[in-house]
Here is the input.
Amino acid sequence: MTYDLRGKRVWVAGHRGMVGSALVRRLEAESCEVLTVSRTEVDLKDQSAVRAWMAREKPDAVFLAAAKVGGILANDSFPADFLYDNLMIEANIIEAAFRSGVEKLCFLGSSCIYPKYAEQPIVESSLLTGALEPTNEWYAIAKIAGIKLAQAYRKQHDCDFISAMPTNLYGPGDNFDLNSSHVMPALIRKAHAAKLNGDPEIVVWGTGMPKREFLHVDDCADACVHLMKDYSDFEHVNVGSGEDLTILELTKLVCELVGFKGAVSHDLSKPDGTPRKLMSAEKIRGLGWSPSISLRDGLAQTYEWFKSSEFSKQ
Ligand code: GFB
Here is the structure.
């Protein structure tokens, strides 16, 4: 173990988000003190507010899970928000972590940092070797900058700041708004509504042919805690399941689990995005971590959470 979390003050930045709330759940098993702060108390885009809070609270460790996130349509529609908000959040927190002497920081990025046509499965060294996927290049550039920030503070100030790159995540606490969400929650909500309404079909964006890798958010949180405790190096680490499927195969699985037996039609006015972004899991497997929640089990659990959420009643 390179870093012992026991007895430490650990800040989960973004604690109310899907990943942040999974990290708070996972850290209950670590005998550490979890710190959180609401966005009304501290605007993470405000450098002086972040510096003041961190100077006062002095966390020992930080999980940087706060970000402006969204699916392919949201990313393509609001490039300024996705680039500016994420740059400010990560720059403020990483710089303040250095200033206030944080011992360990884990920055969370995304698999969209890789080139659109990267060789699959994508290894960490593929970063910056080709053009990005246009629909989310704004978010991708922000996340690449986050990786570089963590590396720069390690290089110049010997900060133990690491970066984890999760694949497409899903699970409890996800965003089910059909305009801003990712594909998994959107399909769950669409199939559920179509079943209840007796609709003859559900509409899937794009051709359905792109392939995506999925990881349950509780597995992601477990991987991040594992890396926080056992990884201390310059390069980022892919966090994925190592398996992918087409959007159409995913749609069939969601319809089966939800119990919707209607047809699937395609809205070809919506973008497919990158054709595939399966990440190599070799590095994190070599660090002793592997996922434990299967897609089928994770989907079923997420659907149960969705049915108890306010999204299913709208
Ligand atoms: O999950 P998603 O929005 O984001 O889209 P990305 C994945 C694929 O699912 C695309 C298709 O090919 C979509 O066209 N899709 C089909 C749908 N039906 C739907 C639907 O109803 N809603 C949505 N949202 N998609 C994101 C990046 O890319 O990946 C983010 O934009 C982030 O920045 C995230 O990196 C992990 O997987 O294409």
Q: What stands out?
A: Residues 32 and 177 are 34 Å apart (CA to CA). The pocket of GFB is lined by residues 71-73, 75, 110, 112, 135-136, 139, 168, 181-183, 186, 204-206, 210, 212, 247, 270-273 (CB under 6 Å). The radius of gyration is 19 Å.
